[in-house]
Write a structure and sequence with these properties.
Length: about 100
């Protein structure tokens, strides 16, 4: 158990856990995006955009990349609501299936 010091930000802890459980497709895409490889743009993984976590987000261009796997085979109401909220906040959402 951790004693003393400041409490950890729950968003940072959630993002770390999401990165630990990334899918194969997320891992492959991360290899392409890491280290500002595409056109010098930075895409942090599991970036918090209240109240969501984007798989990948380019903060400077307000682009979110979402990879949808098995549980996203059908676009559900939650995904539609989430995408609309992100777009209303000025984010452009690019969605790909894991197979893509």
């Amino acid at each position: 158990m951790r004693t003393g010091g400041a409490m950890r930000d729950p968003k940072i802890e959630t993002a770390k856990e999401l990165r630990k459980s990334e899918t194969k497709a997320e891992s492959l895409l991360w290899e392409l995006l890491r280290g500002k490889q595409p056109c010098g743009l930075k895409f942090p993984r599991q970036h918090p955009i209240d109240p969501y976590f984007a798989d990948f987000a380019c903060l400077s261009r307000k682009i979110v990349i979402e990879l949808d796997g098995g549980y996203h085979d059908q676009t559900d109401e939650h995904d539609v609501k989430r995408q609309k909220r992100l777009q209303a906040s000025g984010w452009r959402v690019l969605r790909f299936s894991n197979e893509d």
